Amino acid sequence: MPIATINPATGETLRTFAPIASEQVEAAISRSYLASRQLRDTTVEERGDWLDRVAALLEAERDDVARLVTTEMGKTYAAARAEVATCVSACRFYVTKAPAFLADEPAEAASVGAARAFVRYQPLGPVLAVMPWNFPLWQVLRFAAPALMAGNTGLLKHASNVPQTALYLADLFRRAGFPQGAFSTLLVGSDAVEAILRDPRVRAATVTGSERTGRAVAQIAGRELKKTVLELGGSDPFVVMPSADLDRAAEVATAARCRNNGQSCIAAKRFIVHTDVFEAFAERFAARMSALRVGDPMAQATDVGPLVSEGSRAEIASQVRDAVDQGATLRCGGELPAGEGWYYPPTVIADLTPRMRMWAEEVFGPVAGLYRVSSYGEAIEVANGTAFGLGANAWTRDPAEQERFVIDLEAGNVFVNGMTTSFPELPFGGVKNSGYGRELAAVGMREFCNTKTVWVGGDGTTGPVSAHAE
């Protein structure tokens, strides 16, 4: 894939970039390693001052940054502005919370024969981040904010279709005062990732993207014995039970399916509805999806902008056509619009069967599959019946049923009577083929820390005495 800005609303190539040379990659890794040694010697308060400046710059430049994001990947301007605001909030969250997250954790010293015993969190060093185009700011900041606050440095290999956003991010951290090399953007293709990850100075990697990308990076990192965090694809279930508030569920279902033009790993994609309320929900849902306005992502009235690429639109059209050809029923949408740009209408499709690609594949666009079930047990079977396990929604006003969903849904994130999303305050990640490890909250910051056990003896102590063999 060329490294280029191609406007999805028009298909026009606006700017192209040549990949940087191997010598430039080497220089960037060297600067990152040197900066990691420097950051280890700074205080969390100093790093917090720099990250607070990142937040201030983002806030001041919000409109221009949002316009750039919309131009590069097609999300609505309103959604891009909201993404910038989320990044600002996350930065300030870590400025406030990092001192507590990184503080030494005392242990029961007497029980281990020590004068003092505690856990200390220390940075690992340079971390390679392989990031996607769909949330080109938020995906990067939710890695970079905790990682840099912990004293690590970042090497960003961003998606090739958002190069200007990637360059902006590197400049942002530089202008905020972080040392040279603390955060670097590498304009390289995917073929350069292996050599970067194998470099001994690079200590870990984080990936948000496709299952294929995650497997490739994890395989390399495994051979090199390097820590990885993977946030991969999802085919999130949205289960609606008879006691649900159907009007509210249909409203949230529409937002959940079509946010970011339907291009989100944690967008609800499979709508699993109890037969007692199936038609009532389907009618409400299709009506709301049909009412969404598709068009210029910069226009204030637009609800759904273009898909990111012509290839992405072709893939979604193929998945829908496969289902219809095998007997699925369109409740709305499903027709490619005429004109320029890579638009696809909000679509609801029912009567899906396991023979159809949509039954098991992730659909990365504004297409909702409806699945009719006759019981709680069947709902769980369908919900868990994919290789993915990122997020899940359950809609029920029955407290006992709510608790059962929390236990039974195989997902890293379960939201009851609400839309799955990510918050700095809560850990985020998946299970099964959706990846492993967690971002955000305290655990996300500590993923790229050395959790160091410290045992200190008192006067005359020669060492711990334990009956446990190693």
Distance between the termini: 50 Å
Uncertain residue segments: none
Overall pLDDT score:
96
- CATH homologous superfamily placement of the largest domain: Aldehyde Dehydrogenase, Chain A, domain 1
Helix content: 40-55%
Shape from CA axes?
A: globular
Spatial ordering of strands, largest sheet: 12-13-14-11-10-15-16
Number of beta-strand segments:
18
**Known CATH architecture of the largest domain:** 3-Layer(aba) Sandwich
- Determine the number of helices (DSSP H or I, runs of at least 4 residues): 15
Q: Please identify the structural class as seen in this structure.
A: alpha/beta
CATH topology term of the largest domain: Aldehyde Dehydrogenase, Chain A, domain 1
Report the major sheet: 7 strands, mixed
Structural descriptors:
470 residues; alpha/beta; Aldehyde Dehydrogenase, Chain A, domain 1; Aldehyde Dehydrogenase, Chain A, domain 2; 7-stranded mixed sheet; 15 helices; 18 strands; 40% helix; globular; Ald_DH_N; Aldehyde dehydrogenase; Aldehyde_DH_dom; oxidoreductase; NADP
